[in-house]
Amino acid sequence: MPPNRTRFLLNFATPLALAICLSFALYLTLLWSARQSDILSQDRQRQLVDLIVSNIQAGIAHDQESSTVWDDAVRAVAQSNPDREWLDNNVGAWMHTYFQHDGAFVISPDDHLLVSYLGEARGQQAYAQIAGAARPLLEKLRARLARQDDAGLSDQILSIGESSFASIDERPAVISLKPIISDTGDLNQVPGREFIHIAVRFLDGNFLQSIGREYLLEALQFSPTGISADAAAQATLRASSGEIIGYFLWNPFRPGTAVLSGATPILALVGALILTLMGSLGALAWRRSAHLSKSREQLERMAHTDALTGLPNRASLSQHLALMLAERNPEGCCAVLYLDLDHFKEVNDTLGHPTGDALLIEVAARLKNVAGSLATRVGGDEFVLATRAPDIDALERLCATLISGIRRPFLVHGHPVMIGLSVGVAVADGESDDKDELIRKADIALYHAKTTGRNRYAIFGPHMDELIRSRRDMERDLRAALEDPCQIEVHYQPVFSAMEQEPIGVEALARWRHPTKGLVPPDAFIPVAESTLLIDTLGELVLRRACTAALQWPQLTIAVNASALELRGEGYARRVISVLKEVGLNPARLEIEITESALADDTEHCERNISSLRAIGVRFALDDFGTGFSSFGRLQRMNVDRIKIDKCFVESMAKPGGSEDIVRAMINLAQAKGLKTTAEGIETSEQNDALRRLGCDDIQGYLLSRPVSAAAITAMMTGPATAMRA
What we know:
Largest sheet: 8 strands, mixed, barrel
CATH superfamily of the largest domain: EAL domain
Number of helices: 24
Number of strands: 25
Mean pLDDT: 84
Strand order of the largest sheet: 17-18-20-21-22-23-24-25
Number of domains: 5
Strand content: 15-25%
Distance between the termini: 136 Å
CATH topology of the largest domain: TIM Barrel
CATH architecture of the largest domain: Alpha-Beta Barrel
Low-confidence stretches: 722-726
Structural class: alpha/beta
């Protein structure tokens, strides 16, 4: 070989060939790495889409149980002539309004449609669109119900069901079936003959747009046929039978391709600097990988973090609690603390939801200062701590610290805010190490803490389960009592003119005479009536009897109490007007006593109800004045005719440093506003004389008369005045 050619090969060709080989090898390496990174990224995105769709399927079934596990729904569908409007408002179109379901159907055991809508379609036209997909699920569910197959039930899943994905008019959808069953177990239903509720939600349109924005899935769409994986990522949607419904498609994020696109021009331009370029490309690949990792961590953090407060969420709590129980130390104790803010709703109602959100952020910061990363927010104004402690004393000290920390005033958006904290504690005792059971017991203990005064903590004990059962028994008995006119009685406490000491009216008070327990105190059954939505029935019963009795006493006014829940109902004014017309009582003789909390109504139903009733002559009195939230400020804008001074102020008037000046201020304020005043709880002659001296209009209390029967009021009005003082 000639020397020139040898030098050429040694000095130029060989290094050039080596450089080309190195560049080609590097390029192949980068190409392979990019492809692997793209595959891994697409797999993760596909898993994310599968998880989202699975959660939607489970969520729809959970949504249904809010209306299908309900005694009222069982009764409504079983009627020979069902109330279609009620069904639509509670198990039909309401499901779209509240849960964004696209369709709802109720099918009788004989396959008759009670409710049927899908988008704009109604009746058989709507059901025909889903019948093919729903029929196999319906047959399977009825078979399970007939053999009473309760597999899969838990504290979170209250009834069995069947669900599947389906194609409805070439649109992907979730179809979920749930039986309409009793929530109390008091109603007899023939297994397999239950009415079935079907919910439908489409998985395209707004659903895909929302998911795409939230999880950064570009151009997310649905296709019945799918496309090549080279063009877009896809996730398969299958029915429960295994049939492929279609495919979710999107343009996947390809981190490897992005890296390669940036590296190729650099390789072409600076091939002579291959070693330096390799280092640069390595650094670039690391940065791209770090960005991908950071994005993944951010997504994982979003899935396990509360968006408002930054605290861990319920999913993180479940993982942490399971790990804590698995690693528990026999010498210490593991506990769950369930926290709920006292009077948080008043803050939202009076200062607005933005201020309420800002307050939750401040609360979260204080909890983190005390409990570190143990605090989690599980929803609304509820928080949970899963913690270890050396002993019960340490847990009690932690509870006391948490309560005192939250009771310190907050300054939110320039407003000083005072709230409280109630805590329920459940300690793992070796026999109940299940995390869900611990949370349930902590929730029961929290309820106990709230019912015994708030701003305190309670540690779960076996007796608390008995309290919950007792409350459920009371709810059942109260429902029965409202159907038995003999159990609910109405007593009447006279109201007297302060100056003349003559009766001018009566206040109607509900009393429950239980067939085995005797008289049940109102403060025991009224909260149960409110929490179970029986208060409307109870309130109307008392109103009707009081108005009927008032016809016997034409010289007296009649006062009835209305709860906040009644006043906030859209139909309250109509019910009162209907009762007045049926009974034939002059509306001017009726006075409705309300509490200040009833006026904190975001929907304005309360204000409309009061305005409608005042327009026909009904008067309103503000009960327990001075004990609510910013009472004097609210009085400036309240549309009432009378204020009732709470007995706590009357009782302390004669004490050193007592409340006589406060009572005087209340009376003067009422007079300045042109309002009447009634003082409650008069038990001594000294209180009576003082209120007359201060200019109070009317008085009420045991000194003058206890609550008595209607017959006693009649005797009092026709006989000597002393007859009522028994």
